[in-house]
From TrEMBL:
Name of the protein described by the UniProt record: ATP-dependent 6-phosphofructokinase
Subunit structure: Homodimer or homotetramer.
Keywords recorded for this protein, A-Z: ATP-binding, Cytoplasm, Glycolysis, Kinase, Magnesium, Metal-binding, Nucleotide-binding, Transferase
Site (Important for substrate specificity): G105
Necessary cofactors: Mg(2+)
């Protein structure tokens, strides 16, 4: 059996650990061969791939990024796109199955290919942790760790200058990174896409922290929808999927907070730093286990499923289950954190 692996969508620390886990399990347990498609669906459509022997994955579990490259490309668009073309390409190159590692868009593409009869299994990936049907996605822990380290640094400079500091973290539709990084770093306010918060509430939390002699810290998700707007703040145009490029909500809030509270305020956008560099040990283990399990799924011909972590167990779920809903921060988790604000 010859298996193709691809990584697609935004990159994520842990992708290489998935690839290594899959290749090692495939070679050692099943005597499978592997190829890696370059740059996500683009490489699949163009039959642009290279062999992945055991030596190709040596020592890569600790490397950030993806040795395969990635892109935000649609499997069904372009001259070589669509199920028929991809099926013909797999046949021509004697590739018997495909492991698609990606987020919602990638897995939706994988699901459509499976519906057309192609042998595809999925591995969920996103630092945002917004995929349903799995407790966690790898990359989320690393993004949190990076965010907390950065926010701890913002706090010492904020304390020295008696300023209000705003840390803007990633999270397009959901506030998991803001919630976890904010809680871990002792934020006085956490603003997430799922919860509408008035400007007056934000000013009040900042004032309360300042009155206790603290330098207020606000952690905001890039996808937070401020009072008066219908959707997330965006001034950077759209990406190749037509989605708004987010980023800048912190800079938007800073002058408002400064004006209303009289506190000098600075905003920092952590941006893609959260997706870069080495994965944490937690993410390496999770990613390795998911990669190994994806190969077991191939061995069982469990097409149309993705591997998922539930508690400490790795299970298989239908791809559809992950695509039905976004995994949003539940209200009780936000209310729990809210007790600590101000
Ligand atoms: O992968 C998810 C994510 O990091 C979002 O949090 C963010 O909005 C988006 O990707 C940024 O995408 P890009 O790398 O295309 O700018």
């Amino acid at each position: 059996m010859r298996i193709g692996i691809m990584t697609s969508g935004g990159d994520c620390p842990g992708l290489n650990a998935v690839i290594r886990g899959a290749v090692l399990n495939g070679i050692k347990s099943y005597d499978y061969e592997f190829v890696g498609f370059r740059d996500g669906w683009r490489g699949v459509k163009d039959a642009d791939y290279f062999e992945l022997p055991r030596t190709a994955v040596r020592g890569i579990a600790k490397q950030g990024g993806t040795i395969l490259g990635t892109s935000r490309t649609n499997a069904f668009e372009g001259e070589n796109g669509g199920a028929e073309n991809i099926a013909a390409m797999l046949k021509e190159h004697q590739i018997d199955a495909l492991i698609a590692i990606g987020g919602e868009g990638t897995l939706a593409g994988a699901q459509r290919l499976c519906e057309a009869g192609l042998p595809v299994v999925g591995v969920p990936k996103t630092i945002d942790n917004d995929l349903d049907a799995t407790d966690y996605t790898f990359g989320f822990d690393t993004a949190n760790q990076i965010a907390v380290e950065a926010i701890d640094r913002l706090r010492t400079t904020g304390d020295s200058h008696h300023r209000c500091m705003i840390a803007e973290v990633m999270g397009r539709h959901v506030g998991w990174i803001a919630l976890h990084a904010g809680m871990a770093s002792g934020a006085h306010a956490i603003l997430i896409p799922e919860v509408s918060t008035t400007m007056e509430e934000i000013y009040q939390w900042v004032r309360e922290a300042h009155e206790r002699g603290r330098a207020p810290l606000v952690v905001v998700s890039e996808g937070f929808v401020p009072e008066g707007l219908d959707e997330a703040f965006s001034v950077r145009g759209v990406d190749s999927f037509g989605r708004a490029r987010l980023g800048g909500i912190g800079e938007m809030l800073a002058p408002l907070i400064e004006e209303q509270t009289g506190l000098e305020t600075r905003a920092t956008v952590l941006g893609h730093i959260q997706r870069g560099g080495v994965p944490t040990a937690f993410d390496r283990v999770l990613a390795t286990r998911l990669g190994m399990a994806a190969v077991d799924s191939v061995a069982d011909s469990a097409w149309g499923t993705m591997v998922a972590i539930h508690g400490t167990k790795v299970n298989r779920v239908p791809l559809r289950a992950a695509l039905n809903n976004l995994k949003r921060v539940p209200t009780d988790r936000y209310e729990e954190a809210r007790v600590l604000f101000g």
